[in-house]
Amino acid sequence: MPDTELLSLQRDHIQILQQRYEQVLVAHGYDSLLVSAGAAPMRYGDDQSWHFQGYGPFLHWTGLAGQEHSWLLIRPGQVPILWLYQPVDFWHANLDLPEEPWHQAVEIHFREQQCAPPMALTGKLAVIGDPALLAKVGGEHNPADLLADLDETRVHKTPYEIACLARANEIAMLGHKAARDAFLAGGSEFEVSLAYQRATRQREAEAPYHSIIGVNEHAGTLHYQYYDTEAPARSRSLLIDAGVRFRGYCSDITRTTPAAGEGRFSALVQGLEQLQRRLCKMVAPGVDYVAIHRKTHEGIAALLNAAGVVSGLDDATLIERGITRAFFPHGIGHFLGILVHDVAGKRQPSPADAPFLRLTRTLEPGMVVTIEPGFYLIPSLLDPLLSGPLGDHFNHAVIDELRGCGGIRIEDNVVVTGDGATNLTREAGG
Ligand code: GLY
Ligand code: MN
Ligand code: MN
Fold it and tell me: Which residues does the annotation say bind Mn(2+) 2 (predicted)?
C-alpha cells in the first residue's frame, strides 16, 4: 500500500477513535480525558532508565512509541490536543516528527516541561496512564470501568490499523527469512538475532517484545531469553519468535527450522504446520476462540500418535489425561495490535482446561489474533509423565531423540474479516 493511502487511512482512524472515545466518555459521564504517554522508570539504585515504549492508549492515537512525557487531551466534539515533550537538551535528541496528514486532525504543541500541561477545563476530567506520573494531576485517575471500555475501543481494528499490522508482518518476514538463512549457515543464536535485526532495520529494544531465539534444547523454553554467542557443535533446530513495530503496531511471528538430516523432527514440524494452517482456516466471525484452542489439542493428540511418540492411547484419552497439555502447555494465541498481547481478550476468565489462554471471546470482524500451536519437549512437564502410570505408553527412544530439538512453534497473525479471515503472515510470504 502506498504511503499516501496509509496516511489517509490514518486520518480516518483518528476520526473513528474520536467517535469511539466520545461514546465511552459520554456513557461514563466525563467531559474530558487526559492520556499520559508515560515515561521510562529509572532502574533501582542506578542512574539509567529502562528502554521506553509508550502507554497503549497514547499509541492508539499517535503511534509514537518512543515519545515520553507527552500528553493527549480528548473531549467530545473538540479536536484532540497533543502536547509533545521536546526539551532543549544537549544530552539527548528529540524524536523526529516528519510532517504528516494526521497532524491536521490534532492540535499539536511542543513543550519543555515533563509534567501535565496546564488546562482550563470545566466539568469532569478522567486521567489515564502510569500512576507514578499522575500524582500531581487533578481529575479521576484510571477509573477501572472507564479503562475497560476504552480497552474495548482497541478490539475492532480500523483499516489503518490492519494496514499497519500487515506492514509489520511484511517487515518481520524479511527478518525471519534472514534468521533462517543465518541458522542454516551455522550461525549462533546471537548471530541469528543480528541477522533478524539487520533485515528488519529495527534494534531489538524497539521491538514489541524481546525476540525468542532458541537453538536445539533452548527451543523448548517457551520464552527463552538468552543468546548463546557460539553455535553448538551440532545445530539441530531453530525456533525464532520475533516481531517488529510499524507505526506503533506489532507483529508476532514464530517459525521453526529443522537442520538438514533431522528427518523425524522435520516430519513433526510439517505435521504441526499442517495443523496450524487448518487452525488458521477456522478463524471466522462467530467462531469461539476457545474452540480453536481445543481443536489444537485434538491435532496435537493425532500428531503424538502419528509420530509414534505414544501408543495404545487414543486421541481422546491423550487429551483427557492431560498428555497433550504437557506437549502444548500454552494457549493458542491472543489479540494483537498496539501491544503484542493486546487488551480486552478475556471478558470471561480462561477455562480450567486452558489456564494460559489469553483470549476467550467469540471472533468478530476487525479482530486480529495470533494462531500459534506448539509442540515441545519440556523436561519438567514430560519427565513426570514418563515415570508415571502411563509411562509405558511413551516411546522413550523417540522422545530422547527429539529432546535435543527442543520444540516447535508456528505462529501467524490473522485478521477476522466479514466472511472469514486474512492471514497477514502468509500474505507477507511467511
Ligand atoms: N511472542 C510471545 C507470544 O507469542 O505470545
Ligand atoms: Mn503470540
Ligand atoms: Mn510470538
Answer: 241, 252, 411
Ligand 1 atom, smallest distance to 409 CA: 4
Separation between Cα atoms, residue 288 and residue 328, nearest integer Å: 20
Strands (E), 26-141: 32-36, 71-74, 81-85, 107-111, 125-128, 140-141
Neighbours of ion ligand 3 (CB under 5 A): 241, 252, 254, 411
- Buried (b) or exposed (e) across 118-150, using 16+ Cβ within 10 A? eeeeeeebbbbbeeebbeebebebebeebeebb
CB-based contact 271:260 (threshold 8 Å): no
Give the number of whichever ligand sits closest to the CA of residue 209. Answer: 1
CA–centroid distance, residue 223 to ligand 2 (Å): 11
The listed CATH number (2.30.30.240, 3.40.50.720, 3.40.350.10, 3.90.230.10) that belongs to domain 3-152:
3.40.350.10
Sign of CA dihedral 221, 383, 407, 357: negative
Beta-carbon contacts of residue 34 (< 8 Å; ≥ 6 apart):
71, 72, 73, 116, 119, 125, 126, 127, 128, 137, 139
Q: Which ligand is nearest to the CA of 223?
A: 1
**In the beta sheet, which residues pair with residue 416?**
421
Q: Which CATH number is 159-427 given?
A: 3.90.230.10
Distance 340 CA to ligand 2 centre (A): 7
Q: Where does 98-158 have alpha helices with state H?
A: 144-152
CB contact set of 392 (below 8 Å; sequence gap of 6+): none
What is the Cα–Cα distance from 169 to 332, expressed in whole angstroms?
Answer: 19
Between the CA of residue 406 and those of 20, 130, 224, 285, 327, what are the distances in Å?
A: 45, 38, 11, 35, 11
| CATH 3.40.350.10 residue spans of the chain | 3-152
The model's pLDDT over 141-200, given as tens digits with 9 standing for 90+, comes to 999 999 999 999 999 999 999 999 999 999 999 999 999 999 999 999 999 999 999 999
Q: What is the pLDDT of residues 391-428, one digit of tens each?
A: 999 999 999 999 999 999 999 999 999 999 999 999 99
Dist. CA 61–CA 155, nearest whole Å: 14
pLDDT in tens, 197-241: 999 999 999 999 999 999 999 999 999 999 999 999 999 999 999
